[in-house]
Amino acid sequence: MPRRNDLTTILIIGSGPIVIGQACEFDYSGAQACKALREEGYRVVLVNSNPATIMTDPGLADATYIEPLTVASVERIIARERPDALLPTVGGQTALNLAVDLHEAGVLERYGVELIGASVEAVRIAEDRQRFKDKMIEIGLQVPRSGTVHSVDEAMALIGQVGFPAIIRPSFTLGGAGGGIAYNLEEFKEIVERGLDASPVNQVLIEESVLGWKEFELEVMRDRMDNGVIICSIENIDPMGVHTGDSVTVAPAMTLTDREYQQLRDQALAVLRAVGVETGGSNVQFAISPTDGRIYVIEMNPRVSRSSALASKATGFPIAKIAAKLAIGYTLDELPNDITRETPASFEPTLDYVVVKIPRWTFEKFPQADQTLTTSMKSVGEVMAIGRTFPEAFQKAWRSLEQGRLGWGADGKDQINPERVRERLITPNPERYFYLRYALQSGMNVAQINALTHIDPWFLEQFEQIVNLEGRLRAFDLSNVPADLLRQAKRMGFGDAQLAYLLRAPRLRHAWDAELAVRARRKELGIFPTFHRVDTCAAEFPAFTPYLYSSYESEDEAEPSTRKKVIILGSGPNRIGQGIEFDYCCVHAVFGLRSIGYETIMVNCNPETVSTDYDTADRLYFEPLTLEDVLNIVDLEEPDGVLVQFGGQTPLKLARALEAAGVPIWGTAPDSIDLAEDRDRFGALLGRLDIPAPAHGSATSGEEALEVARTISYPVVVRPSYVLGGRAMAIVYDDETLERYMREAVDASPEHPVLIDRFLEDAFEMDVDCVADGSEVVIAGIMEQIELAGVHSGDSACVIPTYMVAPEHVAMMQTYTVQLARALGVVGLMNVQYAMKDGIVYVLEVNPRASRTIPFVAKATGTPWAQIAAQCAGGAQLRLDDQYLHVMVPGQTEPVISHKLDTGEHNQKYHVKEVVLPWARFPGVDTLLGPEMRSTGEAMGSGATFGEAFAKAQLGCGQDLPLSGKAFLSVNDRDKASLLPIARDLAAMGFELLATGGTAASLREHGLTVTSIYKVNEGRPNAVDYVKNNEIALIVNTPLGKASFFDEVAIRRAAITYGVPMLTTLSGAAAAVQAIRALADDVWTVHSLQERI
Amino acid sequence: MDAVLVLEDGRVFPGRSFGATGERIGEVVFHTGMTGYQEILTDPSYSGQLVTMTAPHIGNTGVNDFDPESFKPQVAGFIVRAYSEDYSSWRARGSLAQLLRDHQIVAIAEIDTRALTRHIRTAGAMRGILSTTGEAVATLLAKTRQAPSMEGLDLTRVVTCDESYGWSEGSAPFGPDYGTTLLPPLTRHVVAYDFGLKRTILRRLADHGCRVTVVPAQTPASEVLAMQPDGVFYSNGPGDPAAAAYAVETLRGLLGKVPVFGICLGHQLMGLALGGRTYKLPFGHHGANHPVRYLPTGRVEITSQNHGFAVDPDSLPAEVEITHINLNDQTVEGLRHPGLRCFSVQYHPEAGPGPHDATYLFRDFVSIMEGKG
């Protein structure tokens, strides 16, 4: 049966802000679902609070709501749009949970909305661990011994049956948050308490440990005719005990006989049938005993998941797209396989290559966090690499990670503590694979390492082969290395840069010379990469989709075209500071350049993204973003241009080397990008333009830094050059701290000096994004940050338009921005950060490239700025008339595209971006915001008033605001006067005020009724006790300095644990008060983007 | 040691030897399954073929005592991208290379199997020679071209058993009880013709309550009928079905007298016996992921396949019903003749290796024997 004709409008729920455990893979799946349903002629309504997504682009759905993912909000959308059906399976656990909530609240029934793709019952069985296990036992499958408890007492009663080590898994949490492994009673009790707390239903599963068992996942699809297929098997190299999101994984499974694999296949299909997944994709996880082959079913997700995104990229099978089509009535055999065209989707992809995924952690942002890898996911991104063999894929994946290493070692950068080798092998941690390498090099054998790590010996033997080859290479240098050995090294995945180190290639002028020497040598020896197609069928049928990876084989399948073409370099693995926003920009660069006639070629290695979908760009190279790999593609494709300004720092870092190699770089010249990072040159430019900036300097050593700091006077902001997300950025108040910073935090060098700026305390900060074509400059948006200076702009809420800046200052920023863009010869995007203090507008920073805020600005103004910028880079000119921005292509008199500009003449005038922070994942980490960015994602709220927009942004981030209750206030002396209006407003809205000594006294002086409570160090009951007793609904606490540091840490931690909203700046508090008023008045409404544009 | 594969059209693939030394000539085919190399190697249907595995890593799980489909490797030669001498599996008893050397199977690794597969896909299955002898390519090429083509080749006589034997073991359990033999209650008697019979088929028959008597390929129909079986099974096997005319004749003597179930070569022989024709496919079906539609229900099965010939649907008489078709290329995958109580499938419902989606066909066979089909 083809599509269902009884449905007209379908609602899709997205996954909200990026958090650990739920990242841009759901933008990929949501975007695919939107496209799939629209191409079937349905009217698609989409809701997602995350503006930095492709799925929320107005072109992807008929009505796009960037609104909070709450029952109240979605009910309003349903009431306006009256969808016939809701597809909840492509927006992660967030969408599934919300769908269940909507069902329970009676909303779906009230409006006659049918749930498609998953039933409430199936979601409940899959999510309720006890019911799931009962179901598995009922159908004859095995599961670890376990029980579900709702209290610590019940848990203590159960532990006797389960035994240690025991796994604790809270129900209904993301990525296993709040869970862990306990080895003793004390630890057990602690983790159970935390888990009960983390679970929204106060329920945890206590489970027999299968630590060290082999771990597998199967990606399964089923249609309503009960046709079931396995899309991909994934083997976790890290055995059971490490969350699959934190494991290095490989597809397909490498260490199963067919007998074992077919048992997993039979069981996976049985699980789907038993849980009741009637249509769509699911992920089933298994543990297999390495000694007797016993199989345990661990869990299943009745929806598209992170692993499905990986499986889609690994196989070329578009799981989310097909899942959407199955949900509306198709069966697998009615759908074509896009890649082969001739064959149907009812088949199982077969791979003649190997795929390796490696997680990317960001522990450097959270130095106090426990780095042990457990069942609770901690990584923020991942890379995938494809090779013809496992060693090749594994080494390419390490090379893709971009962590300051050239690959899996072989770069002279090992930091190994020989004393800790056993410990680092036994306890999983982000450094484990480097220790494993060291262990092999220092003579530990496979059996010994297997005993410590439980990693399957087959993988260890592959690692040993890599290490052995490295040893053989070291015996030569570049001039005498035998051709066959060099070829073997390339076939095993060694990078040219690693070979440059191993073969002691000479470094001449530039950092990249040595690597290029290896490249030249291997070309002389006739060693060239070959490109192969991901074809779903191991070459059994011709592939029509140019989805390519490199290897060193005997024939090339790339078949480059002779069209005019451009390569767009992607942003690599997600990390804090460089995430989905840059993938959004790259995807828009593709859209923009394709629409003006270019063939677009995407290079990226992040499997979670829309950019690596095979139908986003005309051609996709799933490759590491290193000089070597990019040059290989450039050599083959001979593009007219390469775009490096859209993918964040990853491609920018390659710009100069690519330029030096003669690659045509489009857009703003790499030299201008450098100029903006070079304090001296940039300072000179500002001087010439007469634009104020905080006093500044740069230093390449500790002494220099002290000298600069004394000249410009404390406090100062220090940071390394060429970083994103405020990596290692700090505000420093004295010599001692500065010395320590220079010693410990950074690795300063003449090539990478440390930048030192005068810190403008209490300043307001603004962000301006603009687009330029080399002469014409168009302001895209001006954002006012709600937090004061000192909080990284990526961690600060912000609002468009500015609401507290005088028009003359806005005009000044516009003028400066235009001057700067022209002076830097910007062709494309530029972001400028301004600070305002005492009526002066200072330029803090200029970045002539895509910025994190572009997607938000695009959504707020309804204009696809990144597309326009890419078109400028491709030679287009901008022409502005009062309502429209026209894009002109040379040789054509009519504009190729005209965008209507936002005039603000509608009832969605204010747009607020708020951020989410990963504190809940990292117990023990201080949660105070600072100049180092630590947020993982963002949500947007729009409204007629600032308060409404701010309220929605908070709700969009999952932060409920209280409408009544007790507000706890504790602020420093400087803030006491400004607190008064906030306190008055709170009191007027019916909040009861609690405050610590000084704050309480100051408020009472102004006639407010305040109850005094103790600070943590003053006595009991103190503020933390009140929080823990759920007596406090809202906290306003600005830092009081070193004396009360621990007090504040304790309050902040309690606030996070108990989900109490906490404001650490008064500007934030003032915004929250306006938001609470908007919610209390219940005047907020929902609007689609399409209504505005 | 260096080894080389030379195809009859002159294309040469150099690599490294990892099995026995020497020269082997055969038809080069590729198999796209990602697991099950031990089953594939030992499947007698691969007799006379140089089998290329498209999955890059082969040897990972070694070899074990349970998975072989016959008593020894049957392929003429084995071609892989990356051979793993080190293996890891709780059931493994030794390395793949050792098994190959023990049975004089020549094998080559480190060759570009994807390029080879693409070549066969476009140029068609062809003869090739696998050599470790260091002989000149021109000489090897000449030898290849002199070898007989698969078309017209009857290999069933080569691989069949010498004398009949009984079988009553079912599928072995997995997990902690691995290694024990299940003996299900056996209520039916099936005579299985061995044209290259796989053990998994015998186990599946036993699982479904059938005591099996395996007979050599040339056993006359009268002899089988004298055993008064409840049903006859026509097995898989190598070579060109049209060349095994004797087996078609035998089958004609059985049809209508006893229920008959055929798999793979058995299916092709069935097609011929019912009056149809067979033809050679360009490069055959060898894999574990082919979608097949079971027409009576419309459902799709993912199937294990291994055949180079197919039954021409237009050649079949009207009373023969096509029951299964391949969704990739619409070729015939199954047929039945209700009046004659016989049916057959082109693919491998017993799996080994491959998915278990079509196990129901063994139940159907039992139903027919019970007069319900």
TrEMBL record, chain A:
Its EC number is 6.3.4.16, 6.3.5.5. Mg(2+) 2 binds at residues 299, 301. Keywords: Amino-acid biosynthesis, Arginine biosynthesis, ATP-binding, Ligase, Magnesium, Manganese, Metal-binding, Nucleotide-binding, Pyrimidine biosynthesis, Repeat. ATP 2 binds at residues 719, 758, 760, 765, 790-793, 833, 845. The large subunit is composed of 2 ATP-grasp domains that are involved in binding the 2 ATP molecules needed for carbamoyl phosphate synthesis. The N-terminal ATP-grasp domain (referred to as the carboxyphosphate synthetic component) catalyzes the ATP-dependent phosphorylation of hydrogencarbonate to carboxyphosphate and the subsequent nucleophilic attack by ammonia to form a carbamate intermediate. It catalyses: hydrogencarbonate + L-glutamine + 2 ATP + H2O = carbamoyl phosphate + L-glutamate + 2 ADP + phosphate + 2 H(+); hydrogencarbonate + NH4(+) + 2 ATP = carbamoyl phosphate + 2 ADP + phosphate + 2 H(+). Residues 133-328, 683-874 form the ATP-grasp domain. Pathway: Pyrimidine metabolism; UMP biosynthesis via de novo pathway; (S)-dihydroorotate from bicarbonate: step 1/3; Amino-acid biosynthesis; L-arginine biosynthesis; carbamoyl phosphate from bicarbonate: step 1/1. Mn(2+) 4 binds at residues 845, 847. Binds 4 Mg(2+) or Mn(2+) ions per subunit. Mg(2+) 1 binds at residues 285, 299. Belongs to the CarB family. Mn(2+) 2 binds at residues 299, 301. Residues 959-1093 form the MGS-like domain. Residues 1-402 are annotated as: Carboxyphosphate synthetic domain. SUPFAM superfamilies: Carbamoyl phosphate synthetase, large subunit connection domain, Glutathione synthetase ATP-binding domain-like, Methylglyoxal synthase-like, PreATP-grasp domain. Residues 959-1093 are annotated as: Allosteric domain. GO terms for molecular function: ATP binding; carbamoyl-phosphate synthase (ammonia) activity; carbamoyl-phosphate synthase (glutamine-hydrolyzing) activity; metal ion binding. Pfam families: CPSase_L_D1, CPSase_L_D2, CPSase_L_D3, MGS. GO terms for biological process: 'de novo' UMP biosynthetic process; glutamine metabolic process; L-arginine biosynthetic process. Large subunit of the glutamine-dependent carbamoyl phosphate synthetase (CPSase). CPSase catalyzes the formation of carbamoyl phosphate from the ammonia moiety of glutamine, carbonate, and phosphate donated by ATP, constituting the first step of 2 biosynthetic pathways, one leading to arginine and/or urea and the other to pyrimidine nucleotides. ATP 1 binds at residues 129, 169, 175-176, 208, 210, 215, 241-243, 285, 299. SMART domains: CPSase_L_D3, MGS. This is Carbamoyl phosphate synthase large chain. The lineage of its organism: Bacteria, Bacillati, Chloroflexota, Chloroflexia, Chloroflexales.
From TrEMBL, chain B:
Residues 1-188 are annotated as: CPSase. One of its GO terms (molecular function) is carbamoyl-phosphate synthase (glutamine-hydrolyzing) activity. SUPFAM superfamilies: Carbamoyl phosphate synthetase, small subunit N-terminal domain, Class I glutamine amidotransferase-like. Pathway: Amino-acid biosynthesis; L-arginine biosynthesis; carbamoyl phosphate from bicarbonate: step 1/1; Pyrimidine metabolism; UMP biosynthesis via de novo pathway; (S)-dihydroorotate from bicarbonate: step 1/3. Residues 1-131 form the Carbamoyl-phosphate synthase small subunit N-terminal domain. It comes from the Bacteria. Its EC number is 6.3.5.5. CDD domains: GATase1_CPSase. It is an enzyme of class 6 (ligase). Keywords: Amino-acid biosynthesis, Arginine biosynthesis, ATP-binding, Glutamine amidotransferase, Ligase, Nucleotide-binding, Pyrimidine biosynthesis. Composed of two chains; the small (or glutamine) chain promotes the hydrolysis of glutamine to ammonia, which is used by the large (or ammonia) chain to synthesize carbamoyl phosphate. Tetramer of heterodimers (alpha,beta)4. Belongs to the CarA family. Small subunit of the glutamine-dependent carbamoyl phosphate synthetase (CPSase). CPSase catalyzes the formation of carbamoyl phosphate from the ammonia moiety of glutamine, carbonate, and phosphate donated by ATP, constituting the first step of 2 biosynthetic pathways, one leading to arginine and/or urea and the other to pyrimidine nucleotides. The small subunit (glutamine amidotransferase) binds and cleaves glutamine to supply the large subunit with the substrate ammonia. HAMAP family: CPSase_S_chain. PANTHER family: CARBAMOYL-PHOSPHATE SYNTHASE SMALL CHAIN (PTHR43418:SF7), MULTIFUNCTIONAL TRYPTOPHAN BIOSYNTHESIS PROTEIN-RELATED (PTHR43418). This is Carbamoyl phosphate synthase small chain. It comes from Candidatus Chloroploca asiatica. The gene is carA.
